[in-house]
Structure formats: C-alpha cells, structure tokens
C-alpha cells in the first residue's frame, strides 16, 4: 500500500511542477526562404513604408556608411509657417518633423486614393 501511495504522490508532484517535456520550440525548416524574405535596409527592389528612414546609416560593426533609398528634404519655411507647424505638432504630441512627414503622407495617400 505505501508503494502505491508513493507512486501516486510522485505522479501528482510531477504534474504540479508541470511536465513540459513534450513542448518543444518549433524550428523553421525552410531557412533559405526565411533569409530571402527578410528585409534588409537599403534593399531597393520593393517599396516599404516600414523601411528605415534617411539617406544613409552607419554600420555599427564596420563604421561604414550604408546608402538607403530614402532622402532628406529641406523645406524652406518662414517664421509664421514654422510657428504654426510647431503649435500643431505640440498639440498632436509629435516632433515637428514627424508631424510634417505623417501629414504629408496622409495627404498624398488621400490624393492618390491609396489605403
């Protein structure tokens, strides 16, 4: 009788601790497809709104500049235009550059009927 009790106790103890021995991490068997589908900054065969912004970036490992597909624009504004944009950006909780970029993109998408 004590042996049956001990076996039951060990079984309950094992379940209480959680026997996750059958749970394994799923492996990506098609690693080549994963690598080819991965987005790399500066890769310009497709357009992506999530691509890194700017003209270039500096590689942390080599210190070399990597050219990106984006551009840096300078928009001449007079003082009153800039103050108006600063107030609007502050009210929306965004930096001025982000406010201008996001509203310009919204306007362009609306004009071109892009969702």
Give the tags.
elongated, two-stranded antiparallel ribbon, 115 residues, mainly alpha
Radius of gyration: 28 Å
- Total E-strand runs: 2
Strand fraction equals: 5-15%
Number of helices in the DSSP assignment: 4
Low-confidence stretches: none
Order of the strands making up the biggest sheet: 1-2
Biggest sheet descriptor: 2 strands, antiparallel
How far apart the termini lie comes to 72 Å
Task: Put the structure in a nutshell.
With 115 residues, the chain is mainly alpha-helical. Helices cover 46% and strands 5% of the residues. The longest helix has 16 residues, at 2-17.
Strand and helix layout:
Layout: H1 2-17, H2 31-37, E1 56-58, E2 65-67, H3 79-92, H4 96-111
Antiparallel strand pairs: 1-2
Helix pairs in contact: 3-4
């Amino acid at each position: 009788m004590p042996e049956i009790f001990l076996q039951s106790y060990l079984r309950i103890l094992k379940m209480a601790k959680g026997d996750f021995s059958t749970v394994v991490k799923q492996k990506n068997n098609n690693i080549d497809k994963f690598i080819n589908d991965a987005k790399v900054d500066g890769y310009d065969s497709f357009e992506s709104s999530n691509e890194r912004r700017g003209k270039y970036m500096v590689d942390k490992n080599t210190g070399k500049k990597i050219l990106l597909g984006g551009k840096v624009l300078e928009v001449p504004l007079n003082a009153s235009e800039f103050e108006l944009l600063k107030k609007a950006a502050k009210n929306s909780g965004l930096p001025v550059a982000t406010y201008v970029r996001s509203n310009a993109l919204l306007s362009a998408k609306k004009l071109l009927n892009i969702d």
